[in-house]
Amino acid sequence: MLGGTGEARRLAARLPGRVVSSLAGRVTDPRLPEGEVRIGGFGGVGGLVEWLRVNDVTAVVDATHPFAATMTAHAVEATALAGVPLLVLRRPGWTARPGDDWRWVDSLEEAAATLPGERVFLTTGRQDIGVFAGVDRWFLARSVEPPEPPVPHRLHVLLDRGPFTVDGEVALMRRHAVDVLVTKDSGGDQTAAKLVAARRLGIPVVVVRRPPPPAAPTVDSVDAAVEWVRRGSGGA
Ligand code: NAP
């Protein structure tokens, strides 16, 4: 299982003894799933094909983050080459509710070019902060690990990791006088409190659309992925 998400941890816990979880190794203190874990890249498609063969893998579940598009593309290609079934587990995206002021964009670059505010709460993750480096705004950036240069000139970094509460998010946005929130359409409930907080405060939200869905069978729940593995599509 390709992991790095809450769904991946829940799936690993539901399939004891049957799963090796793979993490990219981006954070120094990752939340580890139950069971066997390996950490680090495979070395591209060829490396993943080799790893699947050497470890006698009978099925792959890609439970990576919806924006981990390179890993997912590699999984599609490598499983086809290795002749191993692949299931993609993707949580549903977020949907605007009455009172929301969401501005959908196709990329982080478009988000950086169209910010409807002066004091920006960036929740896109450390790896993406560089996209905003040349933008003349004040930024509050929240990430699990400190960002590396290039970063915006006026930047306050908050090291934290979800889940977050609505009250906490409201207080944070008020404290920093945030007037625009930037997020990816990650989906799920671990980080959705910021969207409720923005609605309450009447703050616009720039939402980055997900990359195109992969050309592979896809489910949107841990239950469905467990079922797929137990049914034998996962090589039982
Ligand atoms: P990415 O851009 O799609 O992948 C870049 C490279 O990182 C891959 O080619 C692969 O290296 C390695 N990699 C990524 N996920 C891996 C995994 N689960 N196991 C082993 N190697 C992996 O990925 P990313 O967006 O940097 O995300 C990295 C990890 O963080 C993922 O596991 C993802 O679930 C998690 N995550 C990402 C985000 C996000 O916003 N992107 C948010 C929360 C969590 P090789 O080519 O060497 O195999």
Task: Please supply descriptive tags for the structure shown above.
Rossmann fold, 236 residues, three-stranded parallel beta sheet, binds NADP nicotinamide-adenine-dinucleotide phosphate, 7 helices, single chain, alpha/beta, 29% helix
Summarize this, please?
The chain has 236 residues and is an alpha/beta fold. Helix content is 29%, strand content 19%.
Give a description of the structure.
Helix 1 runs parallel beside helix 7 and helix 5 crosses helix 6. Strand 9, helix 6 and strand 10 form a beta-alpha-beta unit. The chain is of the alpha/beta class and 236 residues long. The chain folds into two domains: 6-92 and 212-232, Rossmann fold (3-Layer(aba) Sandwich), CATH 3.40.50; 102-208, Rossmann fold, CATH 3.40.50.2000. The chain has helices at residues 6-14, 44-54, 69-82, 108-113, 166-175, 193-201, 222-231; strands at 20-23, 36-39, 60-62, 86-89, 102-105, 119-122, 138-143, 154-159, 180-184, 205-208, 218-219. The strands form three sheets. Strands 5-10-9-6-7-8 form a six-stranded parallel sheet. Residues 2-5, 22-24, 26, 41-44, 47-48, 64-65, 67-71, 74, 125, 127, 184 line the site of NADP nicotinamide-adenine-dinucleotide phosphate.
List the helices and strands and how they pair.
Layout: H1 6-14, E1 20-23, E2 36-39, H2 44-54, E3 60-62, H3 69-82, E4 86-89, E5 102-105, H4 108-113, E6 119-122, E7 138-143, E8 154-159, H5 166-175, E9 180-184, H6 193-201, E10 205-208, E11 218-219, H7 222-231
Parallel strand pairs: 1-2, 3-4, 4-11, 5-10, 6-7, 6-9, 7-8, 9-10
Helix pairs in contact: 1-7, 2-3, 5-6
Residues 2-5, 22-24, 26, 41-44, 47-48, 64-65, 67-71, 74, 125, 127, 184 line the site of NADP nicotinamide-adenine-dinucleotide phosphate (NAP).
